[in-house]
Amino acid sequence: MIHKKTYIFLINLFLVLSCVRNSNFSVPETNCSENLVANTTFKEVKNLYIDGVQQIHQDLIIEGYVISSDKAGNFFGSLHIQEKATGKTEGIQIEIDTRNSHLFYPLGSKVYIKIKGLYLGKSKGVYKLGGVFSAFGNLVVGRLPSLKVPEHIIKACSNSLNIVPHIVTLDLLDDGMINTLVKILDVEIVEEDLGLPFALLKEETKRNLQDCLEHNLTLLNSGFSDFQAEVLPSGSGSITGVLVKNNNDFQLRIRGLEDIDFKQERCPKIIEEFTSTAIFISELADPNNNAGARFVELYNAATVSLSLNGWKLNRYTNANTEVSSSIDLSGFSIGAEQTLIISPNASEFELIFGFVPDISVGINSPADSNGDDTLELVDPFGTVIDVFGIIGEDGSRTNHEFEDGRAIRERGILKANPTYTFSEWIIYNDTGNSGTTKLPQNAPANFTPGKRY
After folding, report:
1. Closest CA to 285 of 214, 200, 230, 366
2. If you placed Cys at 102, which of 69, 83, 139, 277 could pair as Cys (CB 3.0 to 4.6 Å)?
3. Cα–Cα–Cα angle for 117, 120, 126, rounded to 5 degrees
4. Which region holds residue 56: left if phi is over 0, alpha if psi is between -120 and 50, else beta?
5. Whole-model pTM?
6. Which domains does the chain have, with CATH numbers?
7. Burial of 58 by CB count in 10 Å (0-12 exposed, 13-18 middle, 19+ buried)?
């Protein structure tokens, strides 16, 4: 028969063990302190880094606030701490080999970090403190052994604070926010990821966030997290998390689903294909002294940048009535009141004019006209927006010949014209026929690519 006291002890032991996921779980001795005083800053600690992993030998102490949590399983083996509880501040990452660290270092708790004896390193743009191990002969910052953690990370005895994240938009993220808590406004999961779970089972998975202007950010999710199988939210709104970085790419890691507030409607779809009479041909070049320096210049008279997705530039060689060659302008855009330069010989163009053209194409393309061809700018819907020359008419000895010369759109023209109108152009060539100017043009002196006449 089991003694009553023994029975009660067994019940209590069962209740304690049932709260621990792993029977090998080792609870560090609880310790807190209000006697420690910080004698340096996060910035000064980072400045100790020179090149490669190094051990800190000075008696340095920093203080900060815990902003990460492994409670939901999306963080593992690291503790992220920032210097201040509110606003933009410095942050740092400490590698630790402590499971369920949220029980000992809860979110918002103030901690003191004794730096002496820890190793400082920088990996893929992120400063880290921790233990050390050797990989291929190089020292690497690794997890601090669990028994060493309470010696270096001491919780203050004060109550945890509500950490107020730094509010920011995707386009304003910078390196100063790494390892700090940020709240990013006006974002959504990209359409391609909708319907997918947060992560693949037991695999760290990257999902993608974007704002309404299609700035992007990677969302890092653990395949061991409690929310791994949950479907990504379809709305838009704000998301809070610890900002990290992998080389040049910012990434965000949330503490749990409560960090996501996507109650708004999704961003309106960006119209990729549209028509506009603000885009037109502004200069054509067939230099007398260098055929390799030929180019076509397009101009955007609008006060906003315009995409050229679906647009084409066609060439009708000589008197042809069928398109001889074409350039697909998809993937390019023209800035507000800016030009776009197309060259059939990028290296020669750069040598002559001193800068790289926006688009490099081949010989016999629309940008490689010898001055007696017709060029046609067509929008994504097949509508002719702008024309230089007359289809079916060889330009030689006409008012649309620019052989050995140049055709420039008059300064006052701010709108495309689907019908060739000679009065809209200033034309130089080697014949001077039909009202054109007989004055061959030499590169680079007589041309202005990239500058609207």
Report:
1. 366
2. 69
3. 150
4. beta
5. 0.60
6. 31-155 (2.40.50), 166-264 (2.40.50.140), 279-438 (2.60.40.1260)
7. exposed
